[in-house]
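My main concern about presentation is that the manuscript never shows what a single data entry looks like. For the editor and my fellow referees, an illustration may be useful. For illustration, here is how one protein appears when written out as sequence plus structure tokens:

***
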Amino acid sequence: MPALEAMACGAAVLVSNRASLPEVVGDAGKLVEPRPDALRAAMSALLEDEPALESLRRRGLERAGRYAPAAIGERLFAFLRGVR
């Protein structure tokens, strides 16, 4: 949830490439190995690349919208109608 909340607030996200984070964040965030050196390098690179940060912010807002309760409800009802 923290990654989605950050994206919904318009923040660029930098997350581990482990667990469910790659699935949740997709291409709307920067995925890195969970090592201090990898995190440090990715943070530095992003802080020096304003266009990349803006792109992540924009894609993050779009991606977070897919997980909004209304969007999830619509997909669930569409699925259930198809099962019926």
In short: Helices lie at 2-8, 21-25, 36-47, 50-65, 69-83.
